[in-house]
Every structure is written in C-alpha cells, then in structure tokens.
Design a protein that fits this description.
Radius of gyration of chain A: 25 Å
Strand content of chain A: 5-15%
Oligomer: heterodimer
CATH architecture of the domain at 28-135 in chain A: 2-Layer Sandwich
Shape of chain A: elongated
Largest sheet of chain A: 3 strands, antiparallel
Number of helices of chain B: 11
Distance between the termini of chain B: 38 Å
Number of strands of chain B: 0
Strand order of the largest sheet of chain A: 2-3-5
Order of helices and strands of chain B: HHHHHHHHHHH
Order of helices and strands of chain A: HEHEEHEEHH
Number of helices of chain A: 5
Strand content of chain B: under 5%
Largest sheet of chain B: none
Number of domains of chain B: 1
Amino acid sequence: MFSILRSIWLTFLHLFHKSETVEYPEVKPYLPPRYRGRIVLTRDAENMERCVACNLCAVACPVDCISLQAAEDENGRRYPEFFRINFSRCIFCGFCEEACPTYAIQLIPDFELAEYDRQNMVYEKEHLLISGQGKYPDYNFYKHAGVDMGVKGKGEGENEEKPVDIKNLMP
Amino acid sequence: MNEWLNIAGVLFIALTIAAGLIWVERRLLSFWQDRLGPNRVGPFGLAQVIADTIKLFFKEDWVPPFSDKPVFIMAPGILMITILLTFAVIPFGGDFYVFDSNIGILFFLGNSSLGVYSIVLGGWASNNKYSLIGAMRASAQMLTYEVFMGLSLMGVVMMADSFSFQTIVEAQKGGWFFIPQFIGFVVFFIAGLAETHRLPFDIPEAEGELVAGYHSEYSGMKFGMFFVGEYLGITLISAIIATLFFGGWLGPSFLPPVFWFLFKTFMFIFLFILLRASLPRPRYDQLMEVGWKILLPLSLLNLLVTGAVLIFLK
C-alpha cells in the first residue's frame, strides 16, 4: 500500500525533471569525428583524386554496395572511371575505409541520407567526390610509393631510398 | 438560462474535454516519463487532436465479414450514449445543468451498468476469441466494482438526504464530503477506475495478453468511439468525484462556478493519468480478490458507521 503511494508520488515528481528528448531538427546531436556516416571520396593536397581504383573497398564490402571501373590517365595514374555506392544497401560498417590503401574512401559524420525516390539513394562519383582531404590532410599515396606517376621522381619519395645503380659495384 | 443552451454547453464541454484528453494524456504521460510528447502540430502540439481525429475519420471503417454486423455496429454507440446521458444530471454550475433529477445518482449507476453491454456486445459480435476474453473480463470486472461503487456513494446520499446531484452539491456548503466520507471517496475512486477500465485496471484490453481486448476488431471511427468513450468515462467519473466529494461547483466567488467545477474535474483527470503513468497492471484474480474481499466490506463498514453516526447526531 505504501509502496503504491510512493511510486505514484515519485512518478509525479518527474513532472519537474528535465526532459531527455533532443528536439532533433532544431537541435543537432553531437557526432564524433570518427562517426561512420555518409561515404565520400577525398582528394589529396594537389587536388587530385586519391582513389587508385584498386577495388579493395568493393571486395571488403560485406553487402556489395560499391561498384567501380578502373581507368588510367596519360601518366599511367589509375583512377576510377565510375564509382557507384548504393546507399540503400550500405550498412555503414566502415570496412571500405579500413581496406583503402590511399585514404581515398572515408566515412563522415553525416547520416541525413533520406530520399523520396529509392533510385536517388545510388550515389555516383560526382556525388561522392569532395574537394577536400577529409580526415587525413597532407597525405599523398604517390609520395610514399615507388612508382612514378607524375607526382615525384623515382626514389624521391618520403622514407624512400634512391634506386640502386645496377651498373655499379659500389655499395 | 435557456435549456437548449445548457444542453449544447454540456455537450460541448464534455466532448471537447474528451477529445482534448487525447493530447493531454499523451503530453502528461511523456512529462512523467521525461519525454516531451507531441509538440509539433500547432502551438504546444494542440492541433494533434485535430490531426488524430482526421486520421480516425479517414481510416478504412472495416466491419469483419465473420462478425455479427448489426450488433458490431451498435456496440460503440451504446458506450457513447450511456456516458453522454449521465452528463445530463451533473450540475456544471449553479444553474448550468440539463435536468435536476431526484434520482441522479441512481441514473448514473444505471447508465454505467448499461455501459457494460457495449463492451460485452462489442467483444461478442467481433467473433474473435481475444475480444471475447476481453469482454468476459470486462463484464466480470465491471459487475464486481459496480456493487460497491453504488454502496460507496450511499454515505454521501445519507448525509445529503437526497439522490439529486444538485442537492448534494448544495449540502456541501458547510464542508466538502470527502472529509467525513473519506473511505467512500477512496472506494469510489478505485471503483471508478475499474469502471472506466483505465490503467492500472485495463485488464479487459491488456495489450500484452489480449491484443486490444474487446475492441481488437474495431477500426476507423468505431474504434474512435471506444477511444473517446474511454476519455468521456474518465471525465464523467472525475466530474462525479468532484461533485459528490469535493463540492462540485462550489468555490470562492471571484471566479464563476463552472470554472471551479472544471478545475476540480481536471485535478482528478490528472490523477487518473498519473495512475496510468505509475502503476503496473494487477493480475485478474488479484483485482477480483481486492474487490470482493477488501473494498466491498470496507464500503459496507463505511455505510454502517455513517448511518450510526447520523442517527446518533439526530
């Protein structure tokens, strides 16, 4: 009997408690920088596409929502001819970001992806590609790699030694 | 005041409160659960009532092919009629009532007994086992609580020496009846809760066990009638508690009597909603046990003591 009255009283006191509700469209929730939301393709500091169309993201994707076609430019640098992500399938697991060797594909803190037409959930390359560098500024894959793709000469990259002169016996 | 004006006024107030309770209940419940509730449509979400009503009207009004059609269609109407009829005998203000019956309380008790028909017929005509179980529970619960609902009011009747609501209110000018009739008030409140089958006594429609009990098969505005009928029932029981135990429209004269009546009524409506927010549903046999073994003897005892004291004082 007493506990019934007590629980009624305690419930009544909740009238004066602060509400837990976040009034969403007016008050945006805080999303940490590493939140896994919408997927973007980033560019390097020289404003070139980072993506080298290695297909690792498409392989890593557990729901097969990424599809792309590789191509090469006049320097022999690889880039995706098309890059397509079907966001109606994407589960935002972030495996593609982990698989990417060039930090090209990144998940950003944006979840407002609703569309009226299902076909609009398919994002093409021009929708995915942003002009910034995302979470990893000043990283350029080709400055570390050995190959010459018009970014740097052979053996001039960071942490890279000059190529061995195979016609010389000196160490 | 003009009689027709009174009828229109009583109908308007009762139906407006009942419809408004859709919003009031959702809003209050959410405050008690640390939420905000519906606050999007119109100022403070008040237009939610209109939105809900439009939704109910435009839903498909489906009558199941396996049901007993005439009874199925009639059942929600009975609920509304019995409750709205009872509002006729309740004085909203000094001369603001539809008719002052000298059997007012009996009229109320009779109508609330008739209200059981609505639920039993609704559950039976649905031809659905859950509806039938719900209707059986409702009838047993309402018949049980009907018994001492009447008995708990007899103390008030003895003190005021009348069955008329108007006379009972005027008899409370010396002091409200909830002090001498406190047991009667508590018993009537619990019985009223069971009579309107509101939470925590919503065993007939226990959604965890019976889908929605007797109104599982109802849709559209027929469901809406049960829905609004429930809120009308809350308003009615609150109004009767305010009238019989808390002096009805009596109050300081700087505000009109209708205000005091509605103010007291709303206090009890809030209490009804607070009980919904705080208490769990009892088991069915517990409900019956409390009814027959505790509340019935208690109301009989209250009746005896009141009678003895009144005779002693004479």
